[in-house]
Design goal:
The complex is a heterodimer. Chain A is built from 13 helices and two strands, in the order H-E-E-H-H-H-H-H-H-H-H-H-H-H-H. By secondary structure, chain A is mainly α. In chain A, helix 3 runs parallel beside helix 7. Helix content of chain B is 72%, strand content 0%. The chains are: A mainly alpha, B mainly alpha. Chains A and B meet through helix 1, helix 3, helix 4, helix 5 and helix 6 of A and helix 1, helix 5, helix 6, helix 7 and helix 10 of B.
């Protein structure tokens, strides 16, 4: 790791400067993560008096449990749908704004604010719009012959969740795509235009390939967002129901551990989630490092 | 723009405006709903035009709604959200800038280890380690306290990386010059580094404030005492009515008010916000 050529000589000071950050990290991050790993291999009696080492029992049971496998599936469907929808719309908006030099700033302002809406509030807003008794959307869907009911219909519940989660994430993707598009060299575009290629061809042959690092980065970030940050959207809309159909992994850890007090299983689930984040983070960093060298 | 195509430009505007209308639709409905009385919202689909109960609903939210739901008062919850967001923001900025300073400007044993311990926090979002972190906070007797609400959320790898990256671009001569002038490390930090970091701090402030304001899971876990309820918890409680009707007009008024501070900050501080976001890449 690089440092400055010249540095300060002081024995104690750097440790003092690092202390607050390190203490918080050790006490609230490393220690609980270690605990989770430890208790995922143990069974605790109901009164918390004694623990027995049980090896991989929790993990075995987890991956044989149809509920958990369904939750994995649900999470995958949810993560991919939200990522595709929010990145697709983000890219479309970014391409459109990038074309308009003069009014770009106004449109950016108009599109950027959903980022700041809390996921719970996003959940509540869409819950209201899709609410069966008062909601405005079921009312119009009924006139199309669709009887909307996300409290009974698993597909409807999933659609509600996907829309709420994607809606909040469009602005984030939009900003990064816009930044990516604006760094495409203007000279390339002009040269291609002189050679007679139109805006659509230029987009597919020049902009899109140059955007591929941004796209990959956003893909990882979005998967991360849908897997972990959407807890409160689920909690505010479907609470994992109906019939487990929207019970994504993060929500299940909370349900089994905090509400169900099934500590061993919850710990094993936490460890699985940690492994997923580790993989996503490592991929993201390898990529970021590579891009820095460009 | 490379060439002038009036029709395509027109289409682009039309697309963006309709896109904005769709994105803004839920918030528009919320604002409209917050101006009607409960009866109107219950009887059929929500009207698309504002009603006449604006003042009534927004006064009600501040006065009697909370007691009816067994919640603390709205101003108290707003105050709690504000305190939580500010403590997290200042805490994160303070500890990250200090640790970045230590990592960049000192050479000491275990420096690499410290860097990696901080790096690991990137991989451990609170959602992933819910139960064990909750247990530690409980064991430390920090449930229902400001410390329990904020400290576990304060460590921040991204902010540390951002400052580290910025410090690496500060010219070496700065340090050498201040050394010649006889300044110690803390004087250099206070008089040179801190003023230079102003824009970075401001950009981070915008993002971290939003991060703190929209927290939900953590406060739900560590607080049962109504005195520590935040806006996000209160809003969720107003919707999760067990028996009886949800008072949608008041819920929507509350939602509009709870959205206002972070959305206003993003729109007003757009330049700083984008800078902070794209530089930390988080």
């Amino acid at each position: 790791m690089e440092t400055k050529r010249s540095t300060f000589n002081n024995r104690l000071l750097p440790y003092l400067l690092l202390a607050p950050q390190l203490i918080i990290t050790l006490v609230f991050f490393i220690w609980p993560a270690g605990q989770a790993i430890k208790s995922s291999f143990e069974r605790e009696d109901p009164f918390g008096m004694s623990t027995v080492f049980v090896g991989l029992t929790h993990y075995k049971r987890l991956f044989l449990d149809p509920n958990y496998l369904q939750s994995l599936m649900t999470t995958a469907v949810f993560a991919v749908s939200v990522t595709v929808i929010s990145m697709g719309l983000g890219l479309l908006f970014a391409v459109a704004v990038d074309r308009l030099a003069r009014s770009a700033k106004v449109y950016t302002t108009l599109l950027v604010w959903p980022y700041a809406v809390a996921p719970v509030i996003a959940g509540i807003l869409w819950f209201f719009l899709f609410n069966n008794t008062t909601g405005i959307l079921p009312y119009y869907l009924a006139s199309l012959g669709i009887r909307w009911d996300h409290t009974l219909n698993p597909t409807h519940a999933m659609i509600l969740l996907i829309i709420a989660a994607a809606w909040k994430q469009i602005s984030y993707n939009f900003l990064f795509f816009l930044a990516g598009l604006q760094s495409v060299p203007q000279s390339l575009m002009e040269a291609a235009a002189i050679d007679g290629s139109g805006p659509i061809k230029r987009f597919f042959t020049i902009s899109l390939p140059l955007l591929s690092p941004t796209t990959f980065f956003l893909f990882i970030i979005n998967v991360n967002y849908t897997m972990f940050d959407t807890f409160s959207i689920v909690d505010a809309t479907t609470q994992g129901g109906p019939a487990q159909s929207t019970n994504i992994l993060v929500y299940k850890v909370y349900q089994d551990g905090y509400l169900g007090l099934n500590l061993g299983s919850s710990a094993a689930q936490s460890v699985v989630l940690m492994l997923i984040v580790v993989v996503l983070t490592v991929i993201q960093f390898r990529f970021v490092e590579r891009r820095v060298q460009y | 723009m490379v060439e002038n195509r009036p029709f395509l430009t027109f289409l682009t505007h039309a697309f963006l405006i309709s896109g904005f209308l769709i994105v803004a639709f839920p918030v528009y409905v919320a604002i409209v709903a917050s101006t009607h009385d409960a009866q109107t919202l219950m009887s059929s689909a929500v009207p698309l035009l504002p009603g006449s109960h604006f003042l009534e609903n927004y006064t009600a939210i501040f006065t009697n709604v909370s007691a009816a739901n067994g919640l603390p008062s709205f101003p108290l919850m707003a105050m709690n959200s504000l305190i939580m967001a500010l403590v997290i923001t200042f805490g994160k900025i303070a500890i990250s800038i200090l640790s970045a300073f230590a990592i960049v400007y000192f050479r000491f044993p275990l420096r690499l280890l410290a860097f990696w311990i901080i790096f690991i926090t990137l991989m451990l979002p609170v959602e992933v380690r819910i139960m064990p972190t909750y247990k530690i906070v409980a064991d430390l007797g920090m449930l229902n306290s400001w410390a329990g609400l904020t400290i576990p959320l304060i460590a921040s790898a991204t902010a540390t990386f951002l400052f580290r990256q910025f410090f690496m671009t500060v010219p070496e001569e700065m340090l050498e010059a201040s050394r010649v002038d006889g300044a110690g490390p803390m004087k250099f930090f206070r008089d040179i580094l801190l003023p230079l970091s102003q824009t970075n701090i401001a950009a981070l402030f915008v993002i971290l404030f939003i991060y703190g304001w929209i927290q939900y899971l953590w406060p739900v876990l560590v607080t049962t005492d109504l005195g520590y309820y935040t806006l996000m918890m209160g809003m969720k409680r107003m919707v999760a009515v067990q028996d009886g009707e949800i008072q949608w007009n008041l819920v929507m008024a509350g939602a509009v008010l709870a959205m206002l501070p972070p959305v206003a900050i993003v729109m007003l501080m757009q330049r700083l916000f984008i800078r902070g976001l794209t530089e930390t890449e988080k």
